[in-house]
Design brief:
single chain, mainly alpha, 150 residues, 2 helices
Amino acid sequence: MTSDQPGIDPRFDPIFQRGYDGTQAGAARVVTASSGTPRDAAEPPARTDDGIQEASRPVVTIEYPEPTSAPPSGLNPFIILLWVAGPGLTLSAGWLMYDTFASRMTGPVATEDQAMLQLIWSTAPSVVTVGLAIIAGLLFWHATGWRRAR
């Protein structure tokens, strides 16, 4: 860098650099556009009778496409799937709990079956809870949809 002040880069305006103290020559450099005139000059605001200047605002029109058809009125297939899965999980897990309990009461259980019975006995209550939660969520979803329709 060839400058009178250390830390001043001559490629850039020194007034915007750290360490500038105002003594360097060429500090009041004027930057002009190459064309000399602004490309998109705005018109001055119009004056009204009361002396208030009002700027003209551009008129913006928004065109929305016309709906081509009504939304499908069929049932949501995911809701149907959930209505099958919720009661299905609840009933099947409940039956598995009952069957596991009944098989333990009838007599001795083979060692190979004991692991499966323990797995069913420990996971079935959670599956029943998930099934009941699905049913409760679906009832809530239908209730809010019914409320919106009214």
